[in-house]
Write the structure tokens for this entry.
Amino acid sequence: MPRTPPVSDWATDFDVLDDSYVKDPFPIWDDLRSRCPVASTQRRGQTWMPVTYEDVTAIAHDVAAFSSIDTAVIPGEDIPEEEVLLPYGFPPISVDPPIHTWTRRLMLPWFSHAKVDSYEPMTRALCASLVEGFLASGRADAAADYAQQIPVRVIASILGVPEEMSETFTGWVRDVLEFADDPERVQRGSFGIGYYVFDEMNARRENPGEDLLSFLVHAEVDGKPIEDTIVVGMAMLTMIAGIDTTWSAIGLSLWHLATHDDDRRRLVAEPELMVTAVEELLRAYSPVTMARVVKEDIEYKGCPMRAGDKVLMNYPAANRDPLAFERADEVVLDRAANRHVAFGSGIHRCAGSNLARMELRVALEEWLARIPEFHLEEGGEVAWAGGQVRGPRELPVVFR
Amino acid sequence: MRVEIDAAKCQGHARCHAIAPALFDVDDYGQSSVRGDGTVPVDMEAAALLAVANCPEFAVSVTDD
């Protein structure tokens, strides 16, 4: 059973949860760019979807007209105001300036180059041990056994929460991001993470550690501690934004290398290409779509956007725009000019982009060092997730 | 050749620093800046142009000074 009713016309009735879009959105974007670069739909409320680099980046920069108060690609259920537990959502992603400015400033140093360098040895050891675990068997699920196992443990270490909880965290994050059209799962995931983080926050009031959560609990802004709901929201964001996204990028990159022998062999033979290759894989297979809310009625390129409408920030489509990239639909491992916006554009640029890049690079290096030759398992099915974050969830590969 | 960064446009993607760390510094908040007065040694001119071509915010530029 398909998850959604069939799409009649992608320009006026698009659905990012449609099976064909989740599996292979590229021809759909090409079609839209050629005839209607800002698509629309009435499914799940009035929503607009720009698919060119110019439109996506212009809207991302216009924070006065397009708010971040709701960045969910699949809207949640309406909750009465008195029942909202986190009035600011997950700062800084879910707020506009001025709260955005100071919450982001608290987060950024935790993902600086120096900090990310300090997380690299544990990431590398983790990746190596994961590969060693399935190397002898000659096959693996590159998504579930590898990609999915990496970012959750790095994030757990940054937040100072036990890595034994990794599977639980992963389940909660998937509930929130991948099953956003299922209110029960969204509630299970968001309450799971929220109450877990709330308890951990309280524990750190008395017994602080060297972790991000302890830092936030004890941080002061303008001489005052941060509201609990903001601390909880920021910690939840670290988990939600730091796990599913990077794991998807790793899985998408391994899917590409499993299905493109020339690129895989070239990257193994020329490891110095890794730096441009990571950027190119991020461009060609950007996992994350965000959303904005139209603040006041506005006409954008002939589209009558009304206050409250959603606009999908289709960074993955922008990165495939032939007006912005030569050979946009090809993966060019040594692409020299690459202004991709896989991490967004403007003031909401992904705060964890340095971390994500390191994780992706190290994950590919450690895999390719031990498994230079691999391909999709014959008869195996690749299972895809989509919506806010696109990537393979089952990726059976063989390597001998 | 001299490199410049428009601090108001920089959003901390840090691509310039990754491409040419000798020309660009980046602080703990992601803000990039040019090292020294931004003068580009001849053997780094290609890297400077790459930094321009990879900034998603169009914040990096070069002049012929």
In short: The longest helix of chain A spans residues 228-259. Chain A touches chain B through 23 residues (CB under 8 Å). Chain A has a mean pLDDT of 96. The radius of gyration of chain A is 21 Å.
